[in-house]
Every structure is written in structure tokens, then in C-alpha cells.
Design goal:
By secondary structure, this protein is an alpha+beta fold. The chain has helices spanning 4-14, 38-41, 65-74, 231-246, and strands spanning 21-22, 24-25, 30-31, 35-37, 42-43, 52-55, 60-64, 77-78, 87-92, 108-113, 128-133, 151-152, 167-168, 171-173, 178-185, 188-196, 200-201, 205-210, 216-223, 226-229. The protein contains 4 helices and 20 strands. The strands form 8 sheets. Strands 15-16-18-19-20 form a 5-stranded mixed β-barrel. A 3-stranded mixed β-sheet has the order 3-9-7. A two-stranded parallel ribbon has the order 1-8. A hairpin with a 2-residue loop joins strand 19 and strand 20 (226-229).
């Protein structure tokens, strides 16, 4: 028993180490060098304080609180955001380099890219940051969630305002890939193997070739390595058209 008690006590004391280090948001969030870090935002960030969160191109930058919370969590910090903040304003500190050019203050909040994106790269929460600009693109998203998880259509520049036409659903079927094509109608389900003749994201119409008959037909991508034909495919196409119409 004497040996068990110390071991149990050690286990109990060690348990909190698996949780994130609790931190609190600073009353005055500012940075001096144009790179906003967790240390600029939180009290008690410790070694994780060097983790970059966003780049400040002007005299201030507006951060999405959910994105900041996600970056902090990955760095081992736990910010509860008990106040329910949606955005965090970070201003330039007095230690900023005096010779560096300062962008003029804009009057519109826009979502921008915190770093450059390669074509096909999937946008992650830490890749986006709110900033001030003179104007916003006509199709600028109003929420980061509208962009997160989508793939870049082309190379995207860090600091550029986010536009809906920059991104698209990530492709889940590749050219030449062997996929399962399913026909579904009134409880009947038939499947066969086919080769994708074009790539596509979920909901895209692609050409597929039956590996046995070599016949080519159109199918609707339903998921990774999956496609539909028949009434189920028509329903999937209609659902996708409705989603885009509501945007």
C-alpha cells in the first residue's frame, strides 16, 4: 500500500499535463515587428508564444477569434474565450521599425490569406486572417467557414483579399483512378468498377469508362473513389445546384 499511494499521487499530479496550458487574452493586443504571435495575444503563452498567427501589413489587423483559438490549441494552449469574442484587433506597437512602409488605414474588414497558397492546396483555419482594406471583392466571404476546407484554384498571394472564385471543392476523384460506380433507384442498388476519365469534386459530373465493356458514361462524384448514375445521381446534382444558388 505504501508503494501504491506515491504512484497514485504522481499519476494524479501528472494528469493536467495532458490538457492545454490555460492562457488569457491580453488587455492590449499589439505587436512590434509585423508578425503577430501567440505571445503578442496571450498572457502565460510560454515557449508557444513564438508561434506565428498572422502578418500585420498595416497599422492594425483584425483576427478571427476561432482561428486564433485553433492555432493556440495546436500549440498546446487552452484559451476558453469565456467572453465569446468573435474578432481580435491587434495594433502595431511602439517598437515597430520606423523605416518600414505603413499601409494606409482602410475602412472595410476583409478576409485575407495569412500565407501564400499553392494551386490545389486546401485552406486551413490558420491560413486566413481578417484585415482592413479600402474595398472588398464583390464575392468576398462574410465568414471564414465559407472558405476553410476548400482548395485553391490557382496560386494565391499572402495578404490578398479572399474571393469566392479563388477556391473550389477539393477533388476526391483523380484522372485514371479506378472507382466504384453505383446505380440506385427504388431500393435497387447495382455497382461496377470503372476508370475515371476526368477528375472531380463531390457533385461534379465526370466521364467514366466501364472496365469490362469499355463503354463511357457520365456519372456524378459522390465521394472519394465513388460515383453515382441514374436517379440518385440526378438528385445529387440538383442538391448541389441548390447549394450554389443559395450562396
Amino acid at each position: 500500500m505504501k508503494r501504491i499511494l506515491p504512484a497514485l499521487a504522481a499519476l494524479l499530479l501528472a494528469t493536467p499535463a495532458f490538457a492545454g496550458q490555460p492562457v488569457t487574452l491580453k488587455a492590449d493586443t499589439s505587436d512590434a515587428d509585423g508578425i503577430v504571435t501567440l505571445g503578442d495575444l496571450f498572457e502565460g503563452a510560454g515557449a508557444a508564444g513564438k508561434t506565428p498567427v498572422a502578418r500585420r501589413g498595416g497599422d492594425s489587423v483584425l483576427l478571427d477569434a476561432r482561428i486564433v483559438q485553433a492555432v493556440a490549441s495546436r500549440a498546446g494552449l487552452d484559451w476558453a474565450n469565456a467572453e465569446g469574442l468573435k474578432r481580435i484587433v491587434v495594433r502595431g506597437g511602439s517598437g515597430a521599425a520606423s523605416g518600414a512602409p505603413v499601409a494606409p488605414r482602410g475602412n472595410v474588414e476583409v478576409l485575407t490569406y495569412a500565407r501564400g497558397q499553392a494551386a490545389g492546396e486546401v485552406v486551413q483555419p490558420q491560413d486566413l486572417v481578417w484585415a482592413k482594406a479600402a474595398a472588398a471583392p464583390a464575392d468576398a466571404p462574410s465568414d471564414a467557414e465559407q472558405v476553410i476546407g476548400l482548395a485553391a484554384r490557382r496560386p494565391l498571394r499572402a495578404g490578398a483579399a479572399v474571393s469566392a472564385r479563388d477556391v473550389a471543392a477539393a477533388q476526391v476523384v483523380k484522372v485514371g483512378e479506378l472507382i466504384t460506380v453505383t446505380y440506385e433507384d427504388s431500393g435497387i442498388s447495382l455497382s461496377l468498377q470503372a476508370r475515371a476519365l476526368s477528375a472531380g469534386a463531390a457533385g461534379d459530373v465526370i466521364n467514366v469508362q466501364n472496365t469490362l465493356s469499355k463503354k463511357t458514361v457520365q456519372a456524378v462524384v459522390s465521394g472519394p473513389g465513388q460515383a453515382l448514375v441514374g436517379p440518385a445521381a440526378d438528385q445529387l446534382k440538383a442538391a448541389r445546384s441548390t447549394r450554389y444558388a443559395l450562396r
